[in-house]
């Protein structure tokens, strides 16, 4: 059974940084597409960043230059978030597709959430002005 567990959320002031982690068990993250998504209250879930098995990466326009997605050999996915803004406030989810049929940019498009097959429970990020 695949399990994803996020950690690292919290409250920061505008301009601050946080690093989210996603520990994965039951599957090898290097074999699929891994991604970070977020959902603010009253809004749709949206793709933030994704990485595939070849290391190709896609970012949503609203985080380019500020967020960095990465993986390590301990089956953990990361999201380094710098220069955080109040509009980044949301619950952040780690997700995976271990049988991908699309290229990685699809996972940060509006269809991205529907492509993911496994989800964590989320971690809350709050950015104050």
Could you outline the blueprint of secondary structure elements for this entry?
Elements: E1 3-7, E2 10-13, E3 18-25, E4 33-39, E5 46-51, E6 57-59, E7 67-71, E8 76-81, E9 90-97, H1 112-115, E10 118-119, E11 123-128
Parallel strand pairs: 2-11
Antiparallel strand pairs: 1-3, 3-8, 4-5, 4-9, 5-6, 7-8, 9-10, 9-11
Description:
The protein is built from 1 helix and 11 strands, in the order βββββββββαββ. The chain is 3% helix and 47% strand.
What keywords describe this structure?
129 residues, mainly beta, 7-stranded mixed β-sheet, 1 helix, 3% helix
Order of H and E elements: EEEEEEEEEHEE
Overall, the morphology is: globular
Distance between the termini: 40 Å
Structural class: mainly beta
According to DSSP, the number of beta strands is 11
Would you identify the regions where 5 or more consecutive residues have pLDDT less than 50? none
What fraction of the residues are assigned to beta strands by DSSP? over 45%
How many helical stretches? 1
Sheet bearing the most strands, described?
Answer: 7 strands, mixed
Determine the mean pLDDT: 96
The Rg value, from CA coordinates, equals 13 Å
Give the helix level as a range of percent.
Answer: under 10%
Give a quick rundown of the structure.
With about 130 residues, the chain is mainly beta. The chain has 1 helix and 11 strands.
């Amino acid at each position: 059974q695949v399990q994803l567990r996020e950690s690292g959320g919290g409250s920061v002031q505008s301009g601050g940084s946080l690093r989210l982690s996603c520990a994965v068990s039951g599957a090898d993250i290097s074999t699929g597409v891994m991604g970070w998504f977020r959902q603010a209250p009253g809004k749709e879930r949206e793709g933030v960043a994704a990485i595939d098995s070849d290391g190709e990466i896609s970012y949503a326009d609203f985080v380019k230059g500020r967020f960095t997605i990465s993986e390590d050999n301990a089956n953990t996915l990361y999201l380094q978030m710098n220069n955080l803004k109040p509009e980044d406030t949301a619950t952040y989810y780690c997700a995976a597709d271990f049988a991908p049929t699309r290229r990685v940019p699809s996972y940060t498009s509006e269809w991205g959430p529907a492509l993911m097959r496994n989800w964590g429970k989320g971690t809350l990020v709050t950015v104050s002005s």
